[in-house]
Amino acid sequence: MKIGIDTFACNSGESAVGVYVTQLLKRIPPSAAKYELFGWEYDRFAFSEAAPDMEFIPQCSVSGSAANFFWHVFKFPRFARARDWNLCFFPAAHKRLPANSPCPTVGVVHDMVPWWERRKREYLKTFARMLLPGALRRLDRVIAVSGWVKQELVEVAGIKERRIEVIPNGIDLQAFYPRSRGEESVVLIQPFSFRRPYVLYVSRIEHPVKNHCKLIEAFGIFKERTRYPHRLVLAGGDSRGAEKVKEAAASSAHRKDIFFTGHFPYTSLPELYSGADIVVIPSMYEGFGMGALEAMASGVPTACARAASLPETAEHAALYFDPKSAEDMADRMVTLTANRDIHRECRRLGLERVRDFSWDRCARHTLEIIQEMVS
To answer: Is domain 2-170+358-374 given the CATH code 3.40.50.2000 in the classification?
Structure first.
């Protein structure tokens, strides 16, 4: 039995989808099934530690998302047929899918951001409506990482509910856990140095989906109200609209207290979280909300936008605000930093909430679906 795993759009294991693939590969047990990875040439060793015994087959020599899209449409069927797979698994089905497949397919949808963004642009509206939902409908089984994503798949892609299985992501509690801070005023994470206290938001710098500009505005209100020495740390690489976020920060009266890290190594994130006073997640759209789990597992009180899947993931363990209101966002920031009783209670509830999420459970359930489809 042979199963292919598509690692395209997994960002060399660095993005949330990349973390998902890495955690899944670590938990595939030795069995009669043979798993083969395929993706970009430069990803040849990206998953070698997680899956040292799996063959990696580089494909699509021309770089770029457009070239990769056409590879999936025109070359994937022949490639899959030549590999003689019994099934192909697409862990980033919302980003890369073939037009058709000679073998059964299982795909994971982490969000519907491509649809959410493009439906706002008239010239891309028809393109998105035709291709993304249709490709998702052709999957034999669909895995959604949250109930929110499942509902979107039903409403946007027209997929029957019975064909969608909700399997939440997990959290690595051996990496993300409360660390003793002591009295140190500076957190050293080479090559960075962060002066405490700081408010943290971990996300790619993207406008408007990730809502950094509204957070920067809220941070200014927070500083004016409290006169606290907090800094705002924005950890993540630049993406679409990053220049608007940088302009908003440069225009802020508190620009000296706003720090952009650029791309931040995933392995150092636990230390960054643990050093924060609070975490704020203002995103207008999250398919799951991994940042909320990472913050809560690190013992850091969290304030989230009342949007998309965030209330589903964090439940009662976070404070919520209207992501369109800088005043409302600032109110929650003031509450979490000024009221230490609420600060401690959110920390306690967060540590309780993360126990409901397990990579072992996620992998086991996912592999059961794959095996069921092969059978």
So the answer is: yes
